[in-house]
Amino acid sequence: MASDTERLDTDEHQRRLATLRADRRALAARLGNPRWLHRGFGTLAAVFVASPAIPDGVWRTIVLLAVLTASLSLLSAYRRTTGARLSRLGPSAATYFAAVCAVSLVMVSVSFGLTAGGLSWWITASAAITALIVERLVRRFVHAAHDHLDHGI
Known about the structure:
mainly alpha, 5 helices, 81% helix
């Protein structure tokens, strides 16, 4: 039979676990569904993919620096809004983040190929496709982050 001290310790542990679960759920609830994050990254990815249409030189560099700065600002705003660090959102969210980067790099390569082939008017299509794909991946990123924080998965 368990002593009163052991039972008290067990009750205290259960109470602390319940508090921890409530805190995780509250943090996950703060993540919400930030449409500004989806649309922001979709738009920035589209601009990045469309950048080969800009003549090589200072203007393309300015656009690329603006995209990079805006991306870091979005990540910073997401962290301030949610309190969640990108590095602590779990492997599934990290995979979606890497997929966003990979899709953007592949599609900008396609745009450079289109430009080199004299089909620069098709860059609009590749930019639009990229925006849609990135928005969907960012939604999945937020969902994966929510699951990780809510369930510890």
